[in-house]
Design goal:
single chain, alpha+beta, 434 Repressor (Amino-terminal Domain), four-stranded antiparallel sheet, 9 helices, 4 strands, disordered N terminus, disordered C terminus
Length: 198
């Protein structure tokens, strides 16, 4: 039970890590980006839906900025109520996100949405994936928006690039493969300046 004094103490002390934000869900900045990608939301759309400051959300997603437990809970609630489920570590696999149809909000889940979510989990931007997979950027943008299809060869190259970095497509979601002991997978892509994830 939360007393008035413990409530004031919680407001004054920001959460130190995403993991300690809530005992119920352990959500990383990468999972937050991936969840937005799954839904096709920009950072601004999530901030508005959750009622949190956009700059705080962007700082959390890019640098792991410390959010208060209340801001963190609002972000999680907005994503969960829109049909996103956060997948924890387990079964020899890493974190991930998946879409679970719930309520009246059922966005169309396409392969493009899964690719967008995978980019979010990896911290990659559109140009990085397009270059790595040798796919025209404009084609990839339309594919992620479900406005067009890619050729089978382009789709295979994208899947190969994502799977090589540890992404697993599982049902209506994505997960990271946990690297074997002593192996390090680079999940951040090429070095880049800090910018809001698009």
């Amino acid at each position: 039970m939360c007393t008035r004094s413990s409530q004031a103490n919680m407001d004054a002390n920001p959460v130190r890590t995403a993991a300690s934000a809530t005992a119920l869900l352990d959500v990383s900045p990468a999972q937050m980006r991936a969840a937005r990608g799954l839904l096709g939301w920009s950072a601004q759309e999530l901030a508005e839906q959750a009622g949190v400051d956009l700059l705080m959300l962007v700082a959390f997603e890019s640098d792991g900025y410390f959010l208060s437990i209340f801001e963190f809970a609002r972000l999680q609630r907005a994503l969960i109520s829109s049909g996103v489920e956060f997948i924890a570590l387990g079964d020899g696999l890493g974190r991930g996100v998946r879409f679970v149809a719930s309520g009246a909000i059922k966005p169309e889940l396409t392969r493009g949405a899964l690719v967008r979510a995978a980019r979010g989990l990896l911290g990659w931007r559109l140009p990085e994936l397009a270059t790595t997979a040798r796919v025209e950027l404009a084609h990839l943008v339309r594919f992620e928006r479900a406005e067009s299809r890619l050729s089978p060869a382009e789709t295979a190259r994208i899947d190969c690039c994502l799977e090589a970095t540890g992404i697993l497509f599982v049902g209506h979601g994505i997960r990271l493969r946990t690297p074997p002991h002593g192996c390090s997978l680079s999940l951040e892509g090429p070095p880049q300046p800090k910018r809001p994830w698009a």
